[in-house]
User: Which sequence fits this backbone?
């Protein structure tokens, strides 16, 4: 344990919720299907960037205070790729929540299913990325906290632990806010927390062989090469609250907005001119 | 931001072309470690997959985290503090931490000491990637030779004490050889070591131009036997950073500014003997130096990669006379030449690294098999590669370092006026490249080291080894005919030089031309091997044969001319310089 890290005996159990997302930085003309949904085949699947920061937050808690880190991903079997990455980085265990019943879940159903999974591990701290780059809602993390009745600290930048309390510094846009919160608690993490540590190549060599039963003909791998697999039933989900049935969100319409140059306006190079410009931009929420 | 391994398919293809299957089996000693370590590979395929994954980790750290810091590192360099400590540039500090965490800092070190037990060829590929981002970082990351030397020659106690912390980045090391009057000539080292009344070794003296001399673990070449004034009196001592070792000065250099070059003063510094007395220079430093030369072959390759990319990228965007400048035939020729030069350097560096791996692996295997009927065959192959390496390692170092000079110079040319400005990194590449032909033995010294093998016709055996088991298409067979023709010319030139009445003088004067031609045929054979696996490489082979062979033949004509002007007419050709008053 490093200096100034009070922590507590036995450390802390951390759960990190991670998501596999299409790499929206590599969007091409084929990225959207005719019906407005994402063409996942046209985009490489990656570890959601801010979930990497969330994993770093959990691993840094383990490094400083001891304890465990468990990574959970909900999704198709392909999401095991990011669970393997989590293990390579230092997570102790990884679980895939996968079930046909979960298909079509919006953030409400997703957060319900994830909260049921998280509960199973009885964590002291739960970490999520602030938001995923496919939906950009930033809702799932706080909704999990609400269902678990945990305090939710969003936009986490820095974290210290002392006994059953956490001191969290969060980014509030115009500055930072420092909160003291009783555990258990959930944190959503931004890139300001710090980049995910590099893989330890020895762990890469080992955990490249980790698999979930669904990737291994239904059989669990031996020892810590096993990625756990959970169905909605395994975590006691009410089917009415999962998947399409549990998702009130309806996508009404998706519009492809193409920004194009229009008219131009001349601004007088005076203080008044600049002020008028700033006021106008503030009024239409371009800035501020 | 980019993964420097994934965005550069030539690295993976070169590894596939040289083929590490046998090396993997030797490194893993028949895959026996898998029983002991759950991460150790179970087959050659598994091991080679691990190698590529390790390079992907390296490419991620270096491309995404370190490359963006290289410009600042070059600008701020290192700071010598008042208390004698040295502060690294922030990017270098970060790199040491990240490469240690990933364990890439222990790439070639055995598992039980905290390393990855990977072959030297993979360290070469790492150094290639590292040097593309920041050549100066290679000087610190590439100092894995310190841990390798301790691992190879020191007692088990010293290994366990020092090696794991060099692998995980806690410590860095330095090889402390050069002195004001002992540069290329290390036999004349004056630093001394004696045992005090308690039997503790004490080191006294001044060392100069010490890369990372501010490191934690110093391997010092010192005279323990005052009765011998040559190399036989030198031993290798391990000195930990302590108050009796002072960094007196940091050098101000043309390039590799991220690498602290220290002047060190030892005043009764406590030390531990590594291995046996008297073998410091003769055995240990020679081994360390060979490893370091392999490292420079990778460093030159990485600088060449960076320079080629900068030039190619700029030329595709820069418009003059209404078109991008990459459409001009003269620039197309220049950039093709840079690219093929770079690819030649890479395959030569990786192949020579593989030969080092085979020598090391077969040596271990021979020791394990001693007395059994198979042992003799293993020994014969071990000796074959040991012979190759005496020639190939200096060739790879010489070729890559000179290539990095040509390529970075070419990149400045392609960028024109912009290339001369600090706004673009190519001037840094040119400055960084300049040291590679000097340190770990100058180009002239590499030629001296390689020429014996060339005079013995060893290039023929190397070409045969490079093409062993390779299925040649009709087209490649025809091109191999061209290689054989050049080899015959080289044979003749070698015979001419051997028989010349001026003996050693004539031999020394023309050695470089013969070594260049030998490199020409070896690289051609390696390109044939490459093209047999990846047909697109045949165009590169064609370029090599069409543009390089005529030049090399011209050099051989010079070697056979009997001309000795530069030596016998030196005072006229290069008159002594005098002052007017």
Assistant:
């Amino acid at each position: 344990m490093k200096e100034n890290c009070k922590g507590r005996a036995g450390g802390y159990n951390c759960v990190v919720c991670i998501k596999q997302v299409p790499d929206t930085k590599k969007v091409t003309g084929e990225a959207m299907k005719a019906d407005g949904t994402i063409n996942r085949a046209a985009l490489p699947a990656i570890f959601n960037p801010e979930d990497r920061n969330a994993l770093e937050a959990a691993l840094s808690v383990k490094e400083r205070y001891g304890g465990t880190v468990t990574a959970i991903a909900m999704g198709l079997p392909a999401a095991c790729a990011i669970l393997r990455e989590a293990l390579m980085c230092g997570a102790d265990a990884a679980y895939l929540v996968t079930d046909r019943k979960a298909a079509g879940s919006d953030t409400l159903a997703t957060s319900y299913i994830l909260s049921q999974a998280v509960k199973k591990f009885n964590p002291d701290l739960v970490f999520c990325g602030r938001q995923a780059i496919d939906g950009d809602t930033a809702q799932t993390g706080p909704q999990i906290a609400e269902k678990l009745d945990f305090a939710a600290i969003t936009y986490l930048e820095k974290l210290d632990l002392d006994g059953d309390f956490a001191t969290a510094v969060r980014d509030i846009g115009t500055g930072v806010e420092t909160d003291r919160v009783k555990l258990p608690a959930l944190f959503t993490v931004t890139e300001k927390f710090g980049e995910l540590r590099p893989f330890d190549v020895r762990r890469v060599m080992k955990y490249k062989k980790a698999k979930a039963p669904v990737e291994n003909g239904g059989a669990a791998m031996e020892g810590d090469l096993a990625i756990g697999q959970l169905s909605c039933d395994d975590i006691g989900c009410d089917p009415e609250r999962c998947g399409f049935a549990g998702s009130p969100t309806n996508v009404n319409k998706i519009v492809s907005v193409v920004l194009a140059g229009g008219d131009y306006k001349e601004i007088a190079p005076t203080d008044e001119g600049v002020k008028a410009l700033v006021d106008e931009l503030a009024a239409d929420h371009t800035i501020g | 931001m980019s993964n420097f391994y994934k965005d550069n398919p030539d690295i993976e293809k070169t590894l596939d072309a040289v083929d590490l299957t046998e090396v993997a089996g030797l490194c893993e000693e028949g895959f026996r470690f898998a029983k002991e370590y759950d991460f150790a590979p179970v087959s050659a395929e598994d091991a080679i997959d691990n190698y590529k994954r390790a390079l992907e980790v390296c490419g991620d750290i270096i491309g995404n985290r370190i490359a963006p810091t290289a410009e600042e590192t070059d600008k701020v360099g290192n700071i010598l503090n008042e208390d004698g400590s040295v502060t690294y540039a922030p990017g270098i500090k970060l790199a040491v931490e990240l490469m240690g965490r990933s364990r890439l800092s222990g790439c070639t070190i055995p598992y039980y000491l905290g390393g990855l037990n990977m072959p030297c060829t993979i360290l070469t590929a790492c150094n290639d990637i590292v040097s593309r981002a920041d050549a100066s970082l290679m000087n610190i990351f590439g100092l894995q030779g310190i841990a390798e030397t301790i691992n190879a020659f020191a007692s088990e106690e010293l290994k366990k004490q020092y090696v794991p912390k060099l692998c995980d980045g806690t410590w860095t090391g330095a090889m402390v050889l050069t002195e004001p009057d002992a540069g290329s000539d290390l036999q004349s080292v004056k630093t001394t070591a004696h045992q005090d009344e308690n039997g503790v070794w004490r080191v006294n003296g001044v060392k100069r131009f010490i890369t990372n001399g501010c490191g934690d673990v110093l391997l010092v070449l010192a005279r323990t036997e005052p009765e011998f004034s040559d190399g036989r009196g030198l031993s290798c001592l391990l000195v930990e950073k302590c108050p009796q070792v002072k960094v007196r000065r940091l050098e101000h250099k043309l390039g590799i500014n991220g690498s602290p070059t220290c002047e060190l003063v030892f005043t009764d510094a406590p030390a531990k003997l590594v291995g046996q007395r008297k073998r410091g220079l003769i055995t240990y430093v020679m081994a360390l130096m060979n490893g370091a030369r392999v490292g420079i072959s990778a460093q030159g390759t990485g600088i060449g990669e960076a320079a080629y990319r900068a030039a190619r990228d700029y030329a595709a965007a820069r418009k003059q006379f209404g078109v991008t400048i990459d459409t001009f035939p003269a620039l197309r020729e220049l950039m093709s030449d840079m690219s093929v030069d770079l690819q030649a350097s890479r395959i030569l560096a990786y192949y020579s690294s593989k030969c080092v791996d085979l020598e090391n692996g077969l040596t271990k295997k021979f020791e394990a098999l001693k007395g059994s009927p198979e042992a003799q065959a293993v020994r014969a192959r071990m000796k074959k590669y040991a012979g190759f390496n005496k020639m190939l390692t200096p060739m790879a170092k010489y070729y890559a370092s000179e290539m990095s000079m040509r390529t970075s110079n070419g990149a400045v040319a392609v960028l024109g006026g912009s290339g001369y400005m600090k706004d673009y990194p190519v001037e840094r590449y040119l400055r960084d490249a300049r040291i590679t032909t000097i340190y770990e033995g100058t180009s002239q010294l590499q030629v001296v080291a390689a020429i014996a093998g060339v005079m013995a016709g060893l290039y023929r055996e190397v070409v045969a080894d490079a093409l062993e088991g390779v299925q040649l298409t009709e087209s490649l067979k025809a091109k191999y005919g061209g290689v054989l023709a050049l080899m015959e010319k080289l044979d003749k030139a070698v015979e001419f030089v051997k028989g010349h009445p001026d003996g050693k003088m004539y031999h020394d004067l023309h050695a470089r031309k013969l070594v260049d031609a030998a490199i020409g045929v070896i690289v051609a054979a390696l390109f044939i091997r490459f093209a047999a696996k990846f047909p697109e490489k045949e165009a590169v082979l064609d370029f090599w044969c069409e543009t390089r062979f005529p030049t090399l033949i011209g050099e051989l004509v010079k070697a056979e001319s009997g001309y000795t002007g530069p030596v016998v007419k030196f005072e006229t050709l290069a008159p002594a310089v005098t002052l007017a008053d």
